Amino acid sequence: MLKKLANGEYSLKVIFWVFGVFGIFIFNLITAITHNGVLRAICPYGKICSKNVVLYFFSHFAILMTSNGRLMTPLALHFIASACFICYVIILLRGLWKKEETYEGKKFWMFCAKWTMVCWALFSLKFIF
């Protein structure tokens, strides 16, 4: 299925709506959940999480990783979900660019589909970091 997507063998409608819109939505949901799990593991009471999460995380990384491993599982899940999301987006965008070679409809729809997915993928990076 992913090989056919990467080669652009599906129709533009299927690539855009099923793999693009629905697929990226599902990955956004998963990475948002795992991202929140990491934040709860860093500061379970929500005192530090408002602004300086990244600074707190890196300054207390060794302590967080050794304190009963409370950060290890959420962090690993988030890294796995993020890596899968990035791979999926690369496959999706490759499939869209390959589809352009065989697409026989109006080039306007191909252009809109490609740049909508690029913008949405870039916007979705906020759920990873």
Detailed description of the structure:
- The chain has 129 residues and is mainly alpha-helical.
- The chain has one domain.
- 76% of the residues lie in helices and 0% in strands.
- The chain contains 6 helices and no strands.
- Helix 5 runs antiparallel to helix 6.
- The longest helix has 31 residues.
- The protein is elongated, with a radius of gyration of 18 Å.
- About 4% of the residues have low confidence.
Kindly provide the radius of gyration, computed on alpha-carbon positions and rounded to a whole number of angstroms. Answer: 18 Å
Instruction: Characterize the main sheet.
Output: none
Number of helices: 6
- Domains counted in the coordinates: how many? 1
Average pLDDT, all residues: 79
Shape: elongated
Distance between the termini: 28 Å
Helix content: over 70%
What series of H and E elements makes up the topology?
HHHHHH
* Secondary-structure-derived class: mainly alpha
The count of β-strands is: 0
β-strand percent reads under 5%
